[in-house]
Amino acid sequence: MPRFKRILLKLSGEILAGKKGYGIDEDVLNTLAGEIADVRKAGVEVGVVLGGGNIFRGLAAASRGMDRVAADYMGMLATVINSLALQHALEKQKLFTRVLSAIDMQKVAEPFIRRRAMRHLEKGRVVIFGAGTGNPYFTTDTAAALRAIEIGADVILKGTRVDGVYDKDPEKNQDANRYRAITYLDVLNQGLKVMDSTAVSLCMDNKLPIVVFDIGEPGNLMRVVEGDPVGTLVGETV
Questions:
Q1: Is residue 76 part of a domain?
Q2: Has this prediction a pTM greater than 0.90?
Q3: What is the DSSP string of 106-160?
Q4: What's the pLDDT tens digit per position in 209-224?
Q5: What domain range is 24 assigned to?
Q6: Average pLDDT value for residue range 126-153
Q7: For residues 40 and 37, what is the distance between their CA atoms, to the nearest angstrom?
Q8: In a domain, 92, yes or no
Q9: Looking at per-residue confidence, does 21 or 48 come out higher?
Q10: 3-state SS, residue 100
Q11: Which residue in 152, 177, 213, 222 is a FRET match for 161, CA 20 to 30 A apart?
Q12: Closest CA to 73 of 86, 59, 84, 63
Protein backbone atom coordinates (compact mmCIF):
# COMPACT_ATOMS: atom_id res chain seq x y z
CA MET A 1 0.00 0.00 0.00
CA PRO A 2 1.57 3.33 -1.05
CA ARG A 3 2.45 5.68 1.78
CA PHE A 4 2.23 8.76 -0.45
CA LYS A 5 -0.63 9.86 -2.68
CA ARG A 6 1.33 12.41 -4.73
CA ILE A 7 5.09 12.55 -5.19
CA LEU A 8 7.60 14.81 -6.93
CA LEU A 9 10.52 12.81 -8.28
CA LYS A 10 13.73 14.80 -8.81
CA LEU A 11 16.37 13.30 -11.09
CA SER A 12 19.64 14.83 -12.17
CA GLY A 13 20.61 14.90 -15.83
CA GLU A 14 23.68 12.84 -14.92
CA ILE A 15 21.39 9.95 -13.97
CA LEU A 16 20.07 9.86 -17.56
CA ALA A 17 23.62 9.79 -18.95
CA GLY A 18 24.38 6.48 -17.22
CA LYS A 19 27.96 5.30 -17.44
CA LYS A 20 28.58 7.31 -20.61
CA GLY A 21 28.67 10.52 -18.60
CA TYR A 22 26.96 12.60 -21.27
CA GLY A 23 23.84 12.54 -23.43
CA ILE A 24 20.98 10.11 -22.79
CA ASP A 25 21.46 6.40 -22.18
CA GLU A 26 18.36 4.72 -23.64
CA ASP A 27 18.66 1.71 -21.37
CA VAL A 28 18.78 3.90 -18.26
CA LEU A 29 15.86 5.96 -19.56
CA ASN A 30 13.71 2.90 -20.22
CA THR A 31 14.54 1.42 -16.81
CA LEU A 32 13.53 4.66 -15.09
CA ALA A 33 10.31 4.75 -17.09
CA GLY A 34 9.51 1.22 -15.96
CA GLU A 35 10.05 2.14 -12.31
CA ILE A 36 7.82 5.21 -12.65
CA ALA A 37 5.18 3.12 -14.43
CA ASP A 38 5.07 0.65 -11.52
CA VAL A 39 4.50 3.49 -9.06
CA ARG A 40 1.81 5.11 -11.23
CA LYS A 41 0.02 1.79 -11.62
CA ALA A 42 -0.03 1.50 -7.82
CA GLY A 43 -2.22 4.60 -7.78
CA VAL A 44 0.39 7.22 -6.91
CA GLU A 45 0.22 10.58 -8.68
CA VAL A 46 3.66 11.42 -10.11
CA GLY A 47 5.36 14.67 -11.01
CA VAL A 48 8.95 14.71 -12.28
CA VAL A 49 11.66 17.37 -12.47
CA LEU A 50 14.81 16.59 -14.44
CA GLY A 51 18.15 18.34 -14.46
CA GLY A 52 20.03 19.05 -17.67
CA GLY A 53 23.65 18.44 -16.69
CA ASN A 54 24.03 15.51 -19.09
CA ILE A 55 23.61 17.99 -21.95
CA PHE A 56 24.62 21.42 -20.67
CA ARG A 57 25.51 22.84 -17.26
CA GLY A 58 24.83 26.55 -17.06
CA LEU A 59 26.88 27.17 -13.93
CA ALA A 60 29.91 25.38 -15.36
CA ALA A 61 29.67 27.38 -18.59
CA ALA A 62 29.37 30.62 -16.61
CA SER A 63 32.52 29.74 -14.67
CA ARG A 64 34.34 29.54 -18.02
CA GLY A 65 33.30 33.08 -18.92
CA MET A 66 29.89 32.70 -20.58
CA ASP A 67 27.19 35.16 -19.57
CA ARG A 68 25.45 33.58 -16.57
CA VAL A 69 21.91 34.43 -17.66
CA ALA A 70 22.41 33.03 -21.18
CA ALA A 71 24.10 29.93 -19.75
CA ASP A 72 21.24 29.30 -17.35
CA TYR A 73 18.66 29.59 -20.14
CA MET A 74 20.66 27.08 -22.17
CA GLY A 75 20.59 24.76 -19.16
CA MET A 76 16.81 25.16 -18.92
CA LEU A 77 16.46 24.15 -22.57
CA ALA A 78 18.56 21.06 -21.84
CA THR A 79 16.01 20.04 -19.19
CA VAL A 80 13.25 20.27 -21.79
CA ILE A 81 15.18 17.89 -24.06
CA ASN A 82 15.43 15.43 -21.16
CA SER A 83 11.75 15.92 -20.35
CA LEU A 84 10.70 15.07 -23.91
CA ALA A 85 12.94 11.99 -23.86
CA LEU A 86 11.38 10.78 -20.60
CA GLN A 87 7.90 11.47 -21.97
CA HIS A 88 8.63 9.23 -24.94
CA ALA A 89 9.94 6.45 -22.68
CA LEU A 90 6.91 6.70 -20.39
CA GLU A 91 4.49 6.57 -23.28
CA LYS A 92 6.15 3.34 -24.42
CA GLN A 93 5.06 2.07 -20.98
CA LYS A 94 1.46 2.98 -21.95
CA LEU A 95 1.32 5.92 -19.53
CA PHE A 96 -0.39 9.20 -20.27
CA THR A 97 2.04 12.07 -19.80
CA ARG A 98 2.28 15.84 -20.11
CA VAL A 99 5.37 18.05 -20.32
CA LEU A 100 4.79 21.47 -18.77
CA SER A 101 7.44 24.07 -19.46
CA ALA A 102 8.23 27.18 -17.43
CA ILE A 103 9.37 28.78 -20.71
CA ASP A 104 6.69 29.10 -23.39
CA MET A 105 7.33 26.68 -26.25
CA GLN A 106 3.88 25.56 -27.27
CA LYS A 107 5.08 23.49 -30.22
CA VAL A 108 6.63 20.95 -27.86
CA ALA A 109 5.16 21.46 -24.36
CA GLU A 110 2.26 23.01 -22.49
CA PRO A 111 2.94 26.16 -20.47
CA PHE A 112 3.20 25.58 -16.73
CA ILE A 113 -0.11 26.54 -15.12
CA ARG A 114 -0.54 25.28 -11.57
CA ARG A 115 -4.20 24.32 -11.80
CA ARG A 116 -3.67 22.60 -15.13
CA ALA A 117 -0.80 20.60 -13.64
CA MET A 118 -2.94 19.50 -10.72
CA ARG A 119 -5.77 18.51 -13.04
CA HIS A 120 -3.41 16.37 -15.11
CA LEU A 121 -2.22 14.64 -11.92
CA GLU A 122 -5.79 14.02 -10.77
CA LYS A 123 -6.51 12.40 -14.13
CA GLY A 124 -3.60 10.00 -13.64
CA ARG A 125 -1.15 11.59 -16.04
CA VAL A 126 2.57 11.74 -15.22
CA VAL A 127 3.49 15.42 -15.29
CA ILE A 128 7.06 16.34 -16.24
CA PHE A 129 8.05 19.88 -15.32
CA GLY A 130 10.62 21.29 -17.75
CA ALA A 131 12.75 24.45 -17.95
CA GLY A 132 13.35 24.74 -14.21
CA THR A 133 11.65 27.75 -12.65
CA GLY A 134 11.94 29.69 -15.91
CA ASN A 135 14.36 32.08 -14.23
CA PRO A 136 18.17 32.25 -14.26
CA TYR A 137 20.16 31.81 -11.02
CA PHE A 138 17.81 29.07 -9.77
CA THR A 139 18.69 25.38 -9.92
CA THR A 140 16.45 22.47 -10.83
CA ASP A 141 16.61 21.49 -7.14
CA THR A 142 14.83 24.74 -6.34
CA ALA A 143 12.44 24.12 -9.24
CA ALA A 144 11.63 20.69 -7.78
CA ALA A 145 10.92 22.15 -4.33
CA LEU A 146 8.79 24.93 -5.81
CA ARG A 147 6.74 22.64 -8.05
CA ALA A 148 6.27 20.10 -5.25
CA ILE A 149 4.87 22.79 -2.98
CA GLU A 150 2.69 24.26 -5.72
CA ILE A 151 1.05 20.93 -6.58
CA GLY A 152 0.68 19.84 -2.96
CA ALA A 153 3.02 16.86 -3.19
CA ASP A 154 3.43 14.74 -0.06
CA VAL A 155 7.19 14.36 -0.52
CA ILE A 156 10.15 15.06 -2.78
CA LEU A 157 11.97 11.89 -3.78
CA LYS A 158 15.49 12.72 -4.91
CA GLY A 159 16.92 9.85 -6.91
CA THR A 160 20.73 9.85 -6.90
CA ARG A 161 23.72 7.57 -7.52
CA VAL A 162 24.27 7.03 -3.77
CA ASP A 163 22.02 5.39 -1.21
CA GLY A 164 21.36 8.41 0.99
CA VAL A 165 22.92 11.41 2.71
CA TYR A 166 26.42 10.99 4.19
CA ASP A 167 28.48 13.12 6.55
CA LYS A 168 31.15 13.25 3.81
CA ASP A 169 31.45 12.19 0.19
CA PRO A 170 31.16 8.35 0.21
CA GLU A 171 32.79 8.10 -3.21
CA LYS A 172 35.97 9.66 -1.79
CA ASN A 173 35.86 8.60 1.87
CA GLN A 174 35.47 4.97 2.91
CA ASP A 175 34.69 5.99 6.50
CA ALA A 176 31.68 8.12 5.48
CA ASN A 177 28.57 7.49 7.60
CA ARG A 178 25.07 7.48 6.18
CA TYR A 179 22.23 9.23 7.99
CA ARG A 180 18.94 7.37 8.19
CA ALA A 181 17.24 10.67 9.04
CA ILE A 182 18.45 14.24 9.37
CA THR A 183 16.83 17.62 9.94
CA TYR A 184 16.68 20.45 7.42
CA LEU A 185 18.73 22.63 9.75
CA ASP A 186 21.48 20.03 10.08
CA VAL A 187 21.66 19.74 6.29
CA LEU A 188 22.02 23.53 5.99
CA ASN A 189 24.42 23.95 8.91
CA GLN A 190 26.69 21.12 7.75
CA GLY A 191 26.59 22.19 4.12
CA LEU A 192 25.56 18.70 3.00
CA LYS A 193 24.97 18.29 -0.71
CA VAL A 194 21.37 17.08 -0.51
CA MET A 195 19.81 19.88 -2.53
CA ASP A 196 20.90 23.49 -2.77
CA SER A 197 20.21 25.69 0.26
CA THR A 198 17.31 27.55 -1.40
CA ALA A 199 15.52 24.27 -2.12
CA VAL A 200 16.11 22.91 1.40
CA SER A 201 14.91 26.18 2.94
CA LEU A 202 11.74 26.09 0.83
CA CYS A 203 11.05 22.54 1.98
CA MET A 204 11.74 23.47 5.61
CA ASP A 205 9.42 26.48 5.49
CA ASN A 206 6.64 24.36 4.01
CA LYS A 207 7.28 21.19 6.06
CA LEU A 208 7.84 19.15 2.90
CA PRO A 209 9.92 16.01 3.55
CA ILE A 210 12.72 14.93 1.23
CA VAL A 211 13.86 11.34 0.73
CA VAL A 212 17.28 10.88 -0.85
CA PHE A 213 17.83 7.38 -2.27
CA ASP A 214 19.67 5.32 -4.87
CA ILE A 215 17.51 5.35 -8.00
CA GLY A 216 19.86 2.88 -9.68
CA GLU A 217 18.81 0.01 -7.39
CA PRO A 218 15.91 -1.83 -9.07
CA GLY A 219 12.64 -1.45 -7.15
CA ASN A 220 13.91 1.29 -4.85
CA LEU A 221 11.41 3.88 -6.06
CA MET A 222 8.51 1.60 -5.21
CA ARG A 223 10.06 0.74 -1.83
CA VAL A 224 10.32 4.42 -0.93
CA VAL A 225 6.74 5.05 -2.04
CA GLU A 226 5.57 2.14 0.12
CA GLY A 227 7.34 3.62 3.16
CA ASP A 228 10.26 1.22 3.45
CA PRO A 229 13.30 2.71 5.26
CA VAL A 230 15.29 3.29 2.06
CA GLY A 231 17.80 6.11 1.78
CA THR A 232 17.75 9.16 4.05
CA LEU A 233 14.72 11.12 5.24
CA VAL A 234 15.21 14.88 5.57
CA GLY A 235 12.54 16.47 7.75
CA GLU A 236 11.75 18.61 10.78
CA THR A 237 12.92 16.10 13.37
CA VAL A 238 15.05 12.98 13.43
A1: yes
A2: yes
A3: TTTSEEP-HHHHHHHHHTT-EEEEESTTSSTT--HHHHHHHHHHHHT-SEEEEEE
A4: 999 999 999 999 999 9
A5: 6-235
A6: 97
A7: 5
A8: yes
A9: 48
A10: strand
A11: 152
A12: 59
